[in-house]
Amino acid sequence: MLQRSRNTAVIAALLAGIMATPVVAESPVTNQELTDPSAIRVLLAADLETTLSSQMNGTLGELNVTLGKQVKKDAVLAQLNCQEAQARAKVAAAELTMAKQNLSAKQNLRKLDAVGDLEVAIASTEAQKADGARLMAQAQSGYCVVKAPFAGRVAKIHVKAYQTVSAGAPLFDLVSDGALKVRLNVPSTRLPTLREGMPLEVSIYETGKTYTAHITAINARVDAVAQTVELEARLDAEHPDLIAGMSGIARFPAANE
What we know:
Layout: H1 2-20, H2 28-35, E1 40-45, E2 49-53, E3 58-59, E4 70-71, E5 76-79, H3 83-111, H4 117-142, E6 145-147, E7 152-157, E8 164-165, E9 170-176, E10 181-187, E11 199-204, E12 209-223, E13 228-235, E14 247-251
Antiparallel strand pairs: 1-10, 1-14, 2-9, 3-8, 4-7, 5-6, 7-9, 10-13, 11-12, 11-14, 12-13
Helix pairs in contact: 3-4
Keywords: Coiled coil, Signal
Pfam families: BSH_RND (PF25917)
GO molecular function: efflux transmembrane transporter activity
C-alpha cells in the first residue's frame, strides 16, 4: 500500500511538471518575421473571383464541372430543368403574335375609318406589352443555364447533381486564371515612400521560391487601429506552381527601405 502511494505521488509530480512546461507551436511565418523585421505578410489572390448563384427556383441536372477543373468563358457549368420556363416563353411568343395581328387589323380598319385612333393606340400598347412579356420570358429561360462569366478554375462546388435549389442559392466558386494579385499591409509610416510600380520580392511558403512583383494599387485610407495601409501588387509573370490562397512574405528592395 505504501509503495502504491509513492508511485501515485511520483506520477502526479511528473504530470505537474509537464503541465507547467509551456508548449510553443512554431510558425514559419512568425519565425521569419522575427528574424527579418522588413518581411511583410502577403496573401495571393485571383484577379477575379466570384460565387455563381442560381437565378431561379429549379432542379439541377448533371453538373459539367468538378473541383479544380479549368473552364473557358461562357462554358456551361450546370443546367436546371427548364420545361416550365420554356412553356411560359412559348405562351408569351404566341400572345405577341396575336397582339401584332390585332394591331394590324386595327390599322387596316382605321384606313377605312371603321375604328378610331384610340383603338389603334390601345392595340399598339397591347402589342408592346406582349413584346415585353416575351422578352421577360426569354430572360427567365436564360436563367436555366449557368455559364462561366470568365475563364478560370472551379474553387468550390456548393451543390450536387439533381438537387433542387432556390433562387439565390450558391452553386460554384470560380477564380480566374492568369497572374495572381498579392495583398499586403505595410506600416503607414512607409506611405510617403510608396508608389505604384514599385518593385518587390515575394517569397511563398508553399513553394519555397521567390518571385518578382510590382505595386499596382495603394489604398486611399489608413487603418487607424493597426496603423497600416493596404496594398495590392501583381506578379510580373504567370507561375503554374502558384494558386490563390498561398501565403508568404514580401520584401522591398534595399534602396526603398
